[in-house]
Amino acid sequence: MTLHFLVKAEQTAPTTTDPVHNKGIMTLFSQANFDKLKSIMYPKQARKGEHLFWQGDTADKLYYVIKGRVRITKMSELGKSFVLYLHQAGDLFGQIDPFQDSVQAFSAEVTEDCEIGIILRKDLEVLIWQHGDLAIEFMKWMGLVHRITESKFRDLMMYGKQGAFCSLLIRLSNSYGILSGKHEHVLIDYKVNNSELADMIGSTRENINRMISDMRKEEVLELQNGYIVIKNAAYLRNICHCENCPTEICRM
């Protein structure tokens, strides 16, 4: 999991501007096919705290983030919520099975006021029938989503909670990382508390507190005004047995 980040001069007052290295679905779709998708999108405004859909709802739409951020969660039978994805501008998400009915396996919560483009399944099916090249690119997108999910399960299952946490920090860095200070430390420009970090790896806040404390003592990371700064990326890569996944996979 290789770190990729932006250069940013001001480290004490990070903004919520989406990093330009996140190109979203434009890495998979040609401009012509992306324009076809835009032509069938219905605009929607969503405020922070709203849900675009709930686990168990009919899965008949895709969602394209024009502006803002969305968190994808999964609720367990015991009522514990797991954070699976963090989407930002340029991302396409949603569970959809072309040509058959299904239900949402996850919930989508808006974490920053959003502008969303909604794609209905029935409209997408027409485009896929009409344009074979779009169908191929759509299959690439579905394959990428599966690869991201598989890599996250690998992180959670193979190297314990510490490995999963180190992998999480790398993914956050790839999605929101900016250079900080003279020593090329990486500031994660996404404010998240320890309870939320715990939900991202299926752990507890107490475990996250302990791991952060240990890493601060080892000078692996530090906290600045509620933001995490990574000082030793090599340590994280070693603990989670980094496989140097491409950025489009090693992300939130």
* Secondary structure tally: strands: 10
CATH class of the domain at 24-155: Mainly Beta
Q: Write the CATH architecture name of the domain at 24-155.
A: Sandwich
Helices and strands: which structural class? Answer: alpha+beta
**CATH fold call of the domain at 24-155:** Jelly Rolls
Q: What Rg do the Cα atoms give? A: 18 Å
Low-pLDDT parts are 1-21
Which percent band covers the strand fraction? 25-35%
Within CATH, the superfamily of the domain at 24-155 carries the name Jelly Rolls
End-to-end separation in angstroms reads: 12 Å
**Shape label:** globular
* Percent in helix: 25-40%
Tell me the series of helices and strands, N- to C-terminal: HEEEEEEHHHEEHHEEH
What's the main sheet like?
6 strands, antiparallel
Counting DSSP H or I runs of 4 or more residues, the number of helices is 7
Please characterize this protein's 3D structure.
It is built from seven helices and ten strands. The model is unreliable at 1-21 (pLDDT under 50). The protein has helices spanning 31-39, 121-130, 132-158, 160-176, 194-201, 205-217, 233-239, and strands spanning 41-46, 51-53, 61-75, 81-87, 92-93, 107-120, 177-180, 185-188, 221-224, 227-230. With 252 residues, the chain is an alpha+beta fold. The chain is globular and about 60 Å long. Strands 1, 2, 3, 4, 5 and 6 form a six-stranded antiparallel β-sheet that branches. Strands 7-8-10-9 form a four-stranded antiparallel β-sheet. The relative contact order is 0.18. The protein has a domain at 24-155: Jelly Rolls.
